[in-house]
Amino acid sequence: MNIRNRIAMLAAAASILAAAPAFAQEEAAHVKPATAYVQKNIQPWLSDPVVIAAVIESNKAHKRLMQEDIIALDKAWIAKDATVVDPVRKNKLSEFLIVKRDASGGTITEAFVMDNRGLNVGQTDGTSDLWQGDEAKWQKSYGVGPGAIFVDKVEEEDGKKIAQVSVTISDKDVAIGAVTFGIDVSKLK
Fold it and tell me: Which DSSP letter does residue 98 get?
């Protein structure tokens, strides 16, 4: 390779590297305010007895499930089988989450709680699947342990800029599940 080609390659690489930090900073601008919002406005009520009891009950109910059982439940959810969907969508935890979402003034756009297997326990709105255990939202919150907060990238939904923020749910300093919130980042200060 001659010197001109090397210089051209180095210049191209430098150009790409120079742009990368700006892009990363731009993407990360929502992380700090989203984390602060969760710490101040959401984490205090994650220890509510309604949340803890529902997750513990789900953990007990799903304790012996094999992976093929989880996949079968997920397929039933996707097929909108009421015997799988209704117990999650119509329970005290879902009612609790809907109240919290509605009280947020539009900052929280959705919420869903997952157990220690990554299965939905309660939610404000429908999810496309029951099992979240194969996704970053569960792996980077529950999978990390107590105190974990995972802020995902911002995506546009219905003209709003939404970031999903996932938080580990703990009982007595032990991770028992996780919750994911859609956060309208334009509402954060």
Answer: H
pLDDT for 189: 75
Q: Which helix (H) or strand (E) holds 1?
A: none
Mean pLDDT of the chain: 88
CB count in 10 Å sphere of residue 90: 11
Say how many Å lie between the first and final Cα of the chain, rounded: 52
Give the integer Cα–Cα distance in Å for 148 and 38: 11
The three-state (H, E, C) secondary structure of 106-150, written as one string = CCEEEEEEECCCCEEEEECCCCCCCECCCCHHHHCCCCCCCCCEE
pLDDT, tens digit, 9 for 90 and up, residues 40-74: 999 999 999 999 999 999 999 999 999 999 999 99
Helix then strand count (H, E) for the chain reads 7, 5
User: Shortest CA distance to 96 belongs to which of 134, 129, 49?
Assistant: 49
Length of the chain: 189
Q: What is the pTM of this model?
A: 0.84
Among positive and negative, which fits the CA dihedral 126, 130, 135, 138? positive
pLDDT digits (tens, 9 = 90+) for 25-46: 344 789 999 999 999 999 999 9
